[in-house]
Design goal:
Elements: H1 2-18, H2 23-35, H3 40-53, H4 58-70, H5 74-87, H6 92-104, H7 108-121, H8 128-138, H9 142-150, H10 155-169, H11 172-186, H12 191-201, H13 204-216, H14 238-247
Length: about 250
């Protein structure tokens, strides 16, 4: 992974050096800055440059929206994604990301619509049905969430979706079993997702335990603690602001 990141950085820096007006180069560099360096402010500058150079590019708007939502500017980020959808209605990523942000804003009907559009565009895509399960779980529709989770094609994302769905259903035995299964199979690669399930359960101590683990493992998901529909519910806890500052996110937003 370290070697792959190094090559990606070299390629992005070379692209920007050779053509400072290449939007794709700035976007690629922005992605390195946020996912590898955890330099969110630097990434924002690169994504804003990319968006300015390519105002008709859906990808540039998606990249900038990610940074802004990480900063807690969720309304502005959602508007950028809506612009991206208008520019490229066939972009699965735009609909997928928009569903998550609309869920964070409590706009569940719109979120479900965006999630279903992502499914329509890529019915077998990894994580697409998981997103619909997430939307339904967050609005308390556990049975609908479980049905969506069962249709998720990727076994890893299915395990996560089932854990959320069972929690939303309110069956403690089933919820405990699905969470334990998620931990048993994915403690190394889904630390952030496990933290979100604990946040959904209202167990702040366990949520922060897994968020700290995600930070130590350099899980990129931890950059979404402010805009994630579940971890954002932890904002009143002093540990939340401390973690934001540790990962380089502005707090308060």
């Amino acid at each position: 992974m370290a070697e792959a990141n190094r090559k990606a950085r070299v390629a992005a820096e070379r692209a920007v050096s050779e053509d400072p007006n290449l939007a794709e180069g700035h976007a690629a560099l922005g992605q390195i800055l946020v996912s590898v360096d955890r330099n969110a402010k630097g990434a924002e500058a690169e994504f804003r440059r990319a968006a300015a150079l390519a105002p008709a590019s859906a990808e540039s708007k998606i990249g900038l929206s990610t940074i802004l939502s990480n900063f807690g500017q969720i309304e502005e980020a959602a508007e950028l994604l809506q612009q991206a959808v208008r520019l490229d209605p066939l972009s699965t990523n735009s609909h997928f990301d928009l569903a998550r942000l609309l869920t964070s804003l409590g706009r569940y009907d719109e979120a479900a619509q965006s999630a279903r559009k992502a499914i329509e565009l890529q019915p077998g895509g990894a994580g697409t049905w998981q997103m619909l399960a997430l939307v339904e779980a967050k609005r308390g529709n556990g049975e609908a969430a479980l049905k969506a989770a069962a249709r998720e094609s990727d076994p890893d994302w299915r395990a996560y979706a089932v854990a959320l769905a069972q929690q939303a259903r309110g069956d403690r035995v089933a919820a405990d079993a699905s969470l334990n299964a998620l931990i048993a199979g994915h403690s190394d690669d889904m630390s952030f997702q496990i933290a979100t399930v604990y946040a959904f359960r209202g167990d702040a101590d366990k949520a922060f335990e897994w968020l700290d683990r995600a930070y130590e493992k350099r899980d990129p998901g931890v950059m979404a603690i402010i805009d994630n529909p579940f971890t954002r519910e932890l904002q009143s806890d002093p540990r939340f602001g401390a973690l934001c500052k540790k990962v380089g996110l502005p707090w308060p937003p």
